[in-house]
Amino acid sequence: MPEPEQIRAAVHRYLDAVATGTAADIAALYDENATLEDPVGSPSHTGRAAIEKFYGSLESARRSTELLSLRVSGDSAAFGFRVVTETGDQTITVEPIDVMTFDENARITSMRAFWSAQDISFG
Amino acid sequence: MPEPEQIRAAVHRYLDAVATGTAADIAALYDENATLEDPVGSPSHTGRAAIEKFYGSLESARRSTELLSLRVSGDSAAFGFRVVTETGDQTITVEPIDVMTFDENARITSMRAFWSAQDISFG
Fold first, then answer.
1. Which B positions 50-89 lie with beta carbon below 8 A of chain A?
2. CATH code where residue B8 lies
């Protein structure tokens, strides 16, 4: 099981990659066979290729992320964060709570994002 | 699947019960066969009797709770909150992030609490 500090570092790496990385950079933080459910209740994406595709829509937008809260428990983390996406003249702000599990190398083995339309604001 | 508003109300009912209810009051918000994992990574408690026992230790303490953030997604909620427990001359503050699933009547079918020793403060 990864140490809590490894998990904390992995969450920060993830938010940095979501802000400044390519879809491939983000997907590289996931295990080859990881699953992604975003938002929770929607169909899962399985495997790094599908996960890279999921993040592809981010690449054309300017993005920033901010960690709001982080709890580490066992091999898992739950964290609230803000992601601001600028596409053309629209700014979209979402504040999900994500739950991730990690393998012994602190690679993401699953991600589930809790949010709904109510948690999005447009500016 | 319960409506988002039913899930929001259920989370508020839960935090009210943790603050002012008996262990039986809290357990009554759970499905008969619900599971509880608190903290995540520790053995699960299954069934309402085991869940009532889990909350029994709270009964002798003065408690207060405050919801800090809440995200509803599908049949699930993730929420950060503060629970302050006063036992004799010690005040213990914990700020977990909990994830719950709900049945069609917004009864809790599972609860997982993300927190570690780092998230506890003593006053």
1. 68-69, 71-80
2. 3.10.450.50
